[in-house]
Amino acid sequence: MDSVDNNDIVTIKYDSNGNQQWIQRYNGSGNMRDEPSKILINGNGEILICGRTENVHDDDCILLKYEASTGNPVWAQPAIYGGPFANDDRATNMTIDASNNIYVCGYSQTGSAPANEDPVVIKYDDSGNIQGFYSYVALGEDEPVAISHDLTGNIFVAFRTDVDPDPLTSNFNFLTMKFDSGLNPVWATPPQYDSPINQDDEPADLIVSPNGDVYVIGTSENDSSGGRINKNWLTLVYSTSGSQLAISNYDGPNGTDDSPNGLAIRGSSLWVCGYTEGTNNSQRNNTVVRYDSLISVNELAGLKSSIVYPNPFNQSATISIENESSEKYSLVITDIAGAIVSEISFFGNKTEIHKGNLAAGIYQYSISAKSTVVKR
Predict the structure, then answer these.
(1) What distance in Å separates the CA atoms of residue 363 and residue 352, rounded to the nearest whole number?
(2) Is 281 helix (H, G, I), strand (E, B) or coil?
(3) pLDDT, tens digit, 9 for 90 and up, residues 9-61
(4) Options 3.40.50.620, 1.20.58.480, 2.60.40.3080, 1.10.3720.10; which CATH number does 302-375 get?
(5) How far apart (Å, rounded) are the C-alpha atoms in residues 370 and 349?
(6) pTM (2 decimals)?
(7) Helices and strands, counts by H and E, the chain
């Protein structure tokens, strides 16, 4: 910081012993507030920083690139995006693909004051040139919160979307979108999450597993116990086609406000960290929750004659059917390639399936008898 309201973007390299190797300071053309939001290292070992730079009238998105060994700027000028209106544009997050393309997400204020915040996603090549762009006109204050990519170059973004058309109020939902490498939307109907009590739901982070499943975490006001609306941890899992595979709601031990802020995949487990509130909202405690591999059954839309619960499941689940006859049924479980992985015979209207040797993944099942066939 140079003086009051004059922040610079400072980048420092330390060696493994904590000794400073170099320092870079960026002071924008407005000589005002310049702030970073994310730092990453690309495949060449170069340093990328995104954030905002303030000129005389408003903020612009900024992307900086430094050499790892010297800290010298790689580009003659940083990559700066200023939206079509003289309002604030701020970068909030970024990801770098295997070809060193940089995808930056943020928001751009549109119109005259009070201005809405419309989300933007920008693709830059390794030289800092814009190669792709995506935005949409929001009802209210929409912001992209997290961005990631899969092994084939698809881009995934978690948005906080305001679904209330009243500009004086807000009702935030999760919105998750998938793009190809050119930032063209892939899912025709991107999934949204709105809590059962229609309160604020705000994503915090997103990650893509090696098999393409998308994990989104955030805070959901979905609990009104104790006479107040409480914030809980929410974890959503989507398939590569955008279908919801799993949902988990975690309420801390005291049933008050809890919030996650980061996640990671290690082996077959998902790790989520954040905080939970102590007794009488007295303090916030660091909290880590581990989710083991989930097995999910792919339920096809439109069939009402059977149900799997819980779904997904860790160790076992029950499949029930509506038929009340005493016939003998045959249950066949197949993987997504159609290979049979389990066969069970049972009488009545339900049976239990166990994880056994089933690997984590998506499975389908068929129940047949002389008079009934149910496929899901």
Answers:
(1) 15
(2) helix
(3) 999 999 999 999 999 999 988 888 899 999 999 999 999 999 999 887 788 89
(4) 2.60.40.3080
(5) 15
(6) 0.75
(7) 0, 29
